[in-house]
Description:
By secondary structure, the chain is an alpha+beta fold. The chain contains 9 helices and 14 strands. The strands form 4 sheets. Strands 1, 2, 3, 4 and 5 form a 5-stranded antiparallel sheet that branches. Strands 7, 8, 9, 10 and 14 form a 5-stranded mixed sheet that branches. Strands 6-13 form a two-stranded antiparallel ribbon. Strand 3 and strand 4 (44-56) form a beta hairpin. Helix 2 crosses helix 3. It is extended and about 80 Å long.
Amino acid sequence: xxxxxxxxxxxxxxxxxxxxxxxxxxxxxxxxxxxxxxxxxxxxxxxxxxxxxxxxxxxxxxxxxxxxxxxxxxxxxxxxxxxxxxxxxxxxxxxxxxxxxxxxxxxxxxxxxxxxxxxxxxxxxxxxxxxxxxxxxxxxxxxxxxxxxxxxxxxxxxxxxxxxxxxxxxxxxxxxxxxxxxxxxxxxxxxxxxxxxxxxxxxxxxxxxxxxxxxxxxxxxxxxxxxxxxxxxxxxxxxxxxxxxxxxxxxxxxxxxxxxxxxxxxxxxxxxx
Length: 273
């Protein structure tokens, strides 16, 4: 019903306007409807649906279907409002060469419900990625069965030689992503700094930009210019399918997202960095 479909939007205000009613036959009619939404945080978006009207006795009544709210909704589907992180901008050298840029990485995870022997999987993963099996097991063991536990991540080119072996392990999931990295992990490390999950201190300094789990500069130029490089997060409202078939275009895109602004290092880097 309506409450189930909209529960994951949080609080909201809604105005619906039906357009011209078209008579299908003597007992049925239809009308396009536009719905204007305002979420509790001030986010504005709209959806379009279709009203089906049925003549019952002498009164026209609405024949309820989820597609009234959004045309692509099927029974069991829901609407979800999600925060969208802005693309983090690069740090460029004097000649425009990207010193820090979003480079391809692979996130290695484990789908908990598909792992029958956690200890065995942890040993196999540890041998492949060079991490302590006990630490891997400690990540997987307490996780709910329906989650994918992040084990590690690495540059796509570094993990490519062992990708087939990783995928052969029960429950292992490889997720392509990107991450702000230098061309080489040793390149100008002290000056450029590094990025990682935000700290409470960083969130407190820019709560409009960061929440727990975001990636931010933790040292060097990446931290010094965090607010410029990070951009401004936005939102999207999308349909989550009860019975997934094909991807669904978001009902409202990340209209408020603004990408980060690059910075450029004017002077050559000292050769000893």
